[in-house]
């Protein structure tokens, strides 16, 4: 370790927290505690222990965004490329859009997810065992009240044997213990206790409980009917919102453990096969930039592209409505398919 302005950030660190947390600012914040006892030292532990962190700070509860605003706000504005006077843009209405790829030549699957936390509980990295179990029980009770068309089954990971769990994991239905960044933030504490997955009867909607955030609400289907997937997710959000109070701020939107996800807290994307565009990476990147999209490997962030299948998703989450994100994705993927058909 080598100190940076008196703080123990590694000399190789290029994280946002190292960039914005000066020694003076740290001294101003170090005695502050949120009502759940969260401190700036806890918030930055992951960034200190992992020199390759991109952000390096986690929120421990809703209050973190106010108590540690002097360092969190500059990071949020930098990461999200926000203009002055920015604020969360509401808007989560069901959409009517034609299937982009009805013959499923290009689009393998469409997937949209949102993160949600409950305002009455600390966030995942700041929960004790009793709070984590209480959160799980609260969400389980909400699942029991869902209307028939959304109903399904909740499975606690602790009720599964190793073989059963690994089967769900291979299908992408369960989530493993978090990475070292989440581990340093305290998010992995007690795993797999208090963790589980709700799956709707038609298998389109699922909800991860107590992963990085209290809930990850996910809708996924084969093919390119993005509006169908989006609308199914909205139906689940509305049904749960009637029973659960989400952590929300009028300016910042839905609050999450990682500040990169606040706002809509939504990632909308497709897995798409682009054999010709894979050979024209500059052309493909130009399309993604034009439509505010992000290009990732087949398995998501920091993975390789396998058999020309890309993960395409939104690059913006804050200062933009969920419906605008959906339109960006729709138009961007439409442009990619048109380009794939004409590129030689």
Automatic annotation (TrEMBL):
The keyword ATP-binding applies. One of its GO terms (biological process) is phosphocreatine biosynthetic process. Transmembrane segments: none annotated. Residues 106-343 form the Phosphagen kinase C-terminal domain. Keywords: ATP-binding, Kinase, Nucleotide-binding, Transferase. Pfam families: ATP-gua_Ptrans (PF00217), ATP-gua_PtransN (PF02807). GO terms for molecular function: ATP binding; creatine kinase activity. Residues 1-81 form the Phosphagen kinase N-terminal domain. The keyword ATP-binding applies. This is Arginine kinase. It comes from Desulfobacter hydrogenophilus. The lineage of its organism: Bacteria, Pseudomonadati, Thermodesulfobacteriota, Desulfobacteria, Desulfobacterales.
């Amino acid at each position: 370790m080598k100190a940076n302005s008196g703080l123990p950030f590694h000399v190789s660190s290029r994280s946002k927290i190292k960039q914005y947390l000066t020694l003076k600012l740290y001294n101003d914040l170090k005695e502050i505690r949120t009502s759940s006892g969260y401190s700036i030292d806890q918030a930055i532990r992951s960034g200190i222990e992992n020199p390759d962190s991109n952000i390096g700070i986690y929120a421990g509860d809703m209050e973190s965004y106010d108590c540690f605003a002097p360092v969190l706000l500059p990071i949020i504005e930098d990461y999200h490329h926000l203009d002055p006077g920015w604020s969360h843009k509401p808007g989560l209405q069901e959409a009517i859009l034609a299937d982009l790829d009805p013959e499923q030549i290009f689009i393998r699957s469409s997937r949209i997810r949102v993160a949600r936390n409950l305002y009455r509980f600390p966030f995942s990295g700041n929960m004790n065992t009793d709070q984590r179990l209480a959160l799980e029980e609260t969400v389980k009770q909400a699942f029991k009240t869902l209307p028939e068309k959304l109903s399904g089954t909740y499975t606690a990971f602790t009720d599964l044997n190793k073989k059963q769990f690994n089967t769900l994991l291979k299908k992408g239905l369960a989530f493993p213990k978090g990475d070292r960044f989440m581990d340093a933030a305290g998010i992995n504490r007690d795993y797999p206790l208090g963790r589980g997955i709700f799956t709707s009867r038609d298998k389109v909607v699922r909800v991860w409980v107590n992963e990085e955030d209290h809930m990850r609400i996910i809708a996924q289907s084969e093919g390119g009917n993005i509006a169908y997937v989006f609308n199914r997710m909205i139906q689940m959000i509305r049904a749960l919102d009637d029973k659960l109070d989400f952590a929300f701020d009028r300016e910042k939107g839905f609050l999450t453990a990682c500040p990169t996800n606040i706002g809509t807290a939504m990632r909308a994307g497709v897995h798409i096969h682009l054999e010709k565009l894979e050979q024209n990476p500059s052309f493909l990147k130009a399309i993604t930039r034009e439509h505010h999209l992000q290009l990732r490997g087949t398995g998501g962030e920091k993975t390789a592209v396998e058999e020309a299948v890309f993960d395409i998703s939104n690059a913006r989450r804050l200062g933009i409505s969920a419906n605008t994100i959906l339109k960006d994705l729709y138009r961007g993927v439409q442009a990619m398919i048109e380009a794939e058909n004409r590129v030689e």
